[in-house]
Amino acid sequence: MLGDILIVEDEKAIADTIAYALRTEGFEPHRCELGQAALERVAAGGIRLVILDVGLPDLSGFEVCRRLRTVSNVPVIFLTARAEEVDRIVGLEIGADDYVAKPFSPRELVARVRAILRRLEAAPAPAPLFQVDEDALLVRFKGEALDLTRYEFRLLRTLLAAPERVFTRADLMDRVWSEAEETADRTVDTHVKTLRAKLKAIDPSLDPIRTHRGVGYSIGRFPCA
Ligand code: CA
After folding, report:
1. How far is the CA of 179 from the centre of ligand 1 (A)?
2. How far away, in angstroms, is 55 Cα from ligand 1 center?
3. Cα 45 to averaged position of ligand 1 atoms, centre (Å)
């Protein structure tokens, strides 16, 4: 198998045609009809490329791509039905790798898939976003060692151990500050703030820690070593 390809398309006939063409050429097609399901499928891992229809019943393909890009670098090829959609893909930086306009030739689409995967293989593999060194109590972010306090290290390690999981402040207190004498909800917020500032100093365009208002915090699913 050349790789797992996710087709996100609510029109069954089109999805059938693409799946058939991919399978014929040695790929393993997977299918979703909704944007939300596609995000979950990519998060589950193993998908090498996403073919994404712009017009989906729940989220627009643009929104799906935007959300994907906060957690994944998986290549995306858009399927578009209208010229103004092409303008958005070409004009805005929404993180698409390519697009094909409907009606399209399945053979041409598969050729684009191959071309993108070939290009990726030729490029050096990007370093994992986070690397945790338990022995050295060190976390590297984009290859750079973060200068963390003991509690910042524990906080980040806790979040990274369960990507996408929302930790309440109480959860984090228990796990990170278990033996501390005096803590308050604000302690968690303060440490998240300083941690964010340190991550931002390395890459201002990424904000991997998410705030869940009134609840707590989570971190995205990243390639982590
Ligand atoms: Ca559609």
Report:
1. 54
2. 4
3. 24
Query: Contacts from 112-118 at CB under 8 Å and sequence distance 24+?
Result: 112/77, 113/5, 113/22, 113/27, 113/49, 113/51, 113/77, 114/2, 114/25, 116/49, 116/75, 116/77, 117/2, 117/3, 117/48, 117/49, 117/75
134 CA → ligand 1 middle, Å: 46
Supply the pTM of this predicted model: 0.58
Write out pLDDT tens, residues 131-182.
888 888 899 998 899 999 999 999 999 998 888 889 999 899 999 988 776 7
Could you list which residues have their CB under 5 Å from ion ligand 1? 10, 53, 55
Are 139 and 146 in contact, with CB atoms under 8 Å apart?
A: yes
Query: Among residues 49, 50, 63, 60, which one has the least CA distance to residue 82?
Result: 60
